[in-house]
Amino acid sequence: xxxxxxxxxxxxxxxxxxxxxxxxxxxxxxxxxxxxxxxxxxxxxxxxxxxxxxxxxxxxxxxxxxxxxxxxxxxxxxxxxxxxxxxxxxxxxxxxxxxxxxxxxxxxxxxxxxxxxxxxxxxxxxxxxxxxxx
Length: 134
Hints:
- This protein is mainly alpha-helical.
- It has two domains: 1-91, Arc Repressor Mutant, subunit A (Orthogonal Bundle), CATH 1.10.10.10; 92-134.
- The protein is 66% helix and 10% strand.
- It is built from six helices and two strands, in the order H-H-H-H-H-E-E-H.
- It has helices at residues 5-10, 17-23, 27-38, 45-52, 56-69, 93-133, and strands spanning 72-78, 84-90.
- It has a two-stranded antiparallel ribbon with strand order 1-2.
- Strand 1 and strand 2 form a beta hairpin.
- Helix 3 crosses helix 5 (56-69) and helix 4 (45-52) packs across helix 5.
């Protein structure tokens, strides 16, 4: 069960915690992302798997989660004689930060709406209870 908001606010959080908090990414996903950030050139799935010491299929699933979250980008590289393969590189950090800020703003607006609904519901309930008692 997820921690309550008050429990989350009392914990120390590091920036990598945002990957879990915003996107539900796993430890392996953070490791794959870190490898892609630290390398000079984009990597293939096989290279990523070797770097994180995991099976190709496990690395592929992690890459898919990172792609869906927008943390990495996929590029196609064409062979001269035909055919192609894909490489992966990290998305620009400012783009990721902007996306997380938008997500946080949306969440904040939704929470504000829910708080207002809570207040409206229980004010009406309180008012109708007071009317019945008088």
